Amino acid sequence: MQMTMRWFGTGYDSVTLQQIRQVPGVTGVITTLYGTRPGEAWELKDILALKKEVEDAGLKIAGIESVNIHDAIKTGHPDRDKYIDNYIATLERLGQADIRLICYNFMPVFDWTRSDLAKVRPDGSTVLSYNQKIIDQIDPNNMRALLEKQANGFVLPGWEPERIAKLKELFAMYQDVDEDKLFENFVYFLQRIMPTCDKYRIDMAIHPDDPAWPVFGLPRIITGKEKIQRFLKAVDNPHNGLTLCTGSLGSNPKNDIPDVIRACKGRIHFAHIRNLKHNAPGDFEEAAHLSSDGSMDMFAIMKALYDTGFDGVIRPDHGRAIWGEVSMPGYGLYDRALGCAYLNGLWEALSKTDKR
Ligand code: CS2
Ligand code: MN
């Protein structure tokens, strides 16, 4: 496996490449052209400039998170082919720049959803949390204001202000899109991009829905093992794969993550590893990566990856805000660096135990 950290780019991230370079075992970053909008074709020169900046700092671009998908593609709007052509142009240019891993999601309207971005834990750290009872009382039109207030001045990933500003129009676009329709549109998109992925050997890695159930009445299609297997089968190409995000899939405690890992052997191209603490059904908060701080068995998760021969890219996912750090919620340096050290330790123990 290749250990990486997510980096949003100069001007968008409080963490620097120089800091990431000093986290033991981290050799690459997962990044994006954060200023682009869903539906845009990325320019090769912008991709190459980003690549140069990362490489000048002694790191590599291990993959892109995300190349976001325009809502016309998700809703099957008559305009969708134009946006898929742009997506293909972006993939070609990334392929030309030798970047071969793309994380993206197919969630309607909202990317991840949380009810609080700074819940205080007993040790004084703060974390992102979700409580369905609170979400049920929120008008989705107020979600943006609620999250922005707690974003420490950063633009949140997937919550592009220009897009979210047109929330009423967005909800209207999805009015007739149920789960089946969304799935059909997803398959249509994948079938159109696969020839380009084959040509450049690009691995597409869909991110699971977060949380793993419908929110605000919007359909969700990547929520658990059966649905994941359904989409892997629908487009049965090794380049059509999964981002195994433990925090997103694990939001539903019924999802047995080691079992999902074993069932998707060979199709997991990217792993987001983080821990959650479940308080009650539909009520969870993020935790430190260490198993004992949350509800998940991180050893069992890493072991399933190890045992299935996972050799893809991995990153610690959201961390807690600790030691007074101010950053984009979930994306500070300190707790994610602790996460890297811990996950690297589990991996070293797994591989040395195996070899002896
Ligand atoms: C990420 C997602 O910060 C997060 O929660 O895991 O925003 C993820 O980057 C997207 O869903 C992938 O497109
Ligand atoms: Mn994730």
Word description of this protein:
The longest helix is centred in the middle third of the chain and has 22 residues, at 179-200. The radius of gyration is 19 Å and the shape is globular. It has 356 residues and is α/β, with parallel strands linked by helices. The chain has 14 helices and 12 strands. The protein has helices at residues 17-21, 44-56, 71-75, 80-96, 132-136, 143-149, 161-164, 167-173, 179-200, 225-234, 246-249, 257-263, 298-307, 334-355, and strands spanning 2-6, 28-31, 60-65, 101-104, 116-120, 126-131, 203-206, 240-245, 268-273, 276-280, 283-286, 313-316. Strand 7 (203-206), helix 10 and strand 8 (240-245) form a beta-alpha-beta unit. Helices cover 39% and strands 17% of the residues. Helix 4 (80-96) runs parallel beside helix 9, helix 12 runs parallel beside helix 13 and helix 13 packs across helix 14. It has one domain (2-352): Divalent-metal-dependent TIM barrel enzymes (TIM Barrel, Alpha-Beta Barrel), CATH 3.20.20.150. The chain has an 8-stranded parallel β-barrel. The chain has a 4-stranded antiparallel sheet with strand order 5-6-11-10. It binds D-mannonic acid (CS2) and manganese (II) ion.
Present the secondary structure layout.
Layout: E1 2-6, H1 17-21, E2 28-31, H2 44-56, E3 60-65, H3 71-75, H4 80-96, E4 101-104, E5 116-120, E6 126-131, H5 132-136, H6 143-149, H7 161-164, H8 167-173, H9 179-200, E7 203-206, H10 225-234, E8 240-245, H11 246-249, H12 257-263, E9 268-273, E10 276-280, E11 283-286, H13 298-307, E12 313-316, H14 334-355
Parallel strand pairs: 1-2, 1-12, 2-3, 3-4, 4-7, 7-8, 8-9, 9-12
Antiparallel strand pairs: 5-6, 6-11, 10-11
Helix pairs in contact: 4-9, 12-13, 13-14
Manganese (II) ion (MN) binds near residues 245, 247 and 248.
